[in-house]
Write a structure and sequence with these properties.
With 129 residues, the protein is mostly helical. It folds into two domains: 23-54, no CATH class; 55-129. 75% of the residues lie in helices and 0% in strands. The protein has four helices and no strands. It has helices at 2-21, 34-43, 57-88, 94-128. Helix 3 runs antiparallel to helix 4. The model has no long low-confidence stretch (mean pLDDT 77).
Length: 129
Amino acid sequence: MKKLIAGILVAISLTVGLLVATVPVYATSPTQSAKDQICTGVSGQTGGKCGTGGASINGIISAVLNVLSVIAGILAIIMIVVSGMKYVTSQGEAQAVAGAKKTLIYAIVGLAVVAMAQFIVHYVLATLK
């Protein structure tokens, strides 16, 4: 059972990683130079300059927070399912039922903490701009 859960977690994390890591870049017209096409695709600007030459710290923090929040959310959902399975298979044993309820409560609290962290960090980053 542990190998199955570990395999599912690895598959989900690889899928999420590939979805987050791939960003399409589109050229706007065939007459633009290569640098103009890249700048237009990456930052939505036109012309031969790509802005300041790097990503802002706010953007990096926001992107990292979003990735970590997705991972934490997926893990919390998995733990909710696991707690449900523990509850169903407890067969009325008091300790098993209590363990399943604890797992469910901790998973829900984890989701709430992740949501609050998202709100707080995005509020602070917007305020600093």
